[in-house]
Amino acid sequence: MAGPLEGIRVLDLSAVLSGPIAAGMLADQGADVVKIESPDGDTSRRIGPRKADISAMFLAANRGKRSLVLDLKQAAAQQIVRELAQRADVLIENFRPGAMDRLGLGHAALLALNPRLVYLSISGFGQTGPNAGERAYDAVIQAVSGISASHRNQVSGDPQVLAAALCDKLTALTAAQAICAALLARARTGVGQWVELAMLDAAVSFQWPDAMYNHVWLDDAPPASPEFGVSQKPWKTSDGYAVASGPQPVEFAAVCAGFGRPELANDPRFASVDARFRNAAALREELDPSAAAIDTATMLQRMRAHNAPVGRVNERHEVLADPQVLHNGTLVEVDHGALGRARLPRSPARFNGTPAGGPGPAPHLGQHAADVLGELGHGAAQQNAWREAGVLGPAPVFPKSSVPTTPR
After folding, report:
1. Does the keyword Cell membrane apply (predicted)?
2. Angle (nearest 5°) at CA 140 between 136 and 143
3. What is this structure's pTM?
4. How far apart are CA 345 and CA 266, in angstroms?
5. Which residues are catalytic?
6. N or C terminus: fewer CB in 10 A for the chain?
7. 394 within domain boundaries
């Protein structure tokens, strides 16, 4: 059975992570995604462990897509995008503001050609404003949004940039949700729309429920609370780390009992969530020795015996063998032809009525030019002429056995 987005056509003109991950999520759920790349290919093809022209980063963000290489500086390439946009349901781009307009491919131009198009523009700071024209990457947005300041080094107090490209990925999640909302609106109204999404806005919004909760109330603001989660850092055991914590009184009592200190549940210093936040250092002094005296397996066993929320801190390679990850089938293997097998996460959402297949392989650079252009009615002679003129990238070169079939 096809996925919930079967029949939805997506043009992915984005690069690196935010837009590509969003488009990859749509591909996971059954959409036909055509990735349009420059002759040099997406920068992410060259980041991380790499086989041929496909890196691990590129594979994870672009699984299940088709690739077409176009030199968008050329008028013929711009016309090809217009033809594709006339047939598309969704277009995703993350050029700097104004760039698509200068190519004649801005939202106004393409919505005039296809009023049903959902055109999503991802920018770093917004389409207008004092920083709109500046280059923006994940680390820059982490800094400006306050995320770096919210994750200070526990010892030095220095702000940190998280290594997980957090802002790119949360922007991708926001983008995928916004696209589906716009498609639902189109089902009601019959028309598409331009959707603007700034990474900065996504990151600030992401911070608001917890890291920024002291900045919510304006009139007669209550006293500030300690930072959310200050008492939730991992406990160091004799052989590793684990997290045991919970906001409910019964959960805190269970944690104390699991550490063999049930009397702390009635200690006035820890009588409420706010009190535990304010007295986090004192709580650590009480319980750190108990954690250090046992190994991680024992801590997990004791906490679970008291029904306390608990989890071991897995190293990244340990996630692969985590019993619940294995049970859920969170990770699947994908055949990538001569490049070998690859491990990828399947779509986290399970659609019981319209289940999608697993993630497909990522495309080689320009792999699907003949198919995509053929669907527009442009035959081999025209394609060859475009290649000679530099409109298309050169014909992809790879061993026949390395050409996987991209699910559609």
Report:
1. no
2. 150
3. 0.94
4. 44
5. 168
6. N
7. no
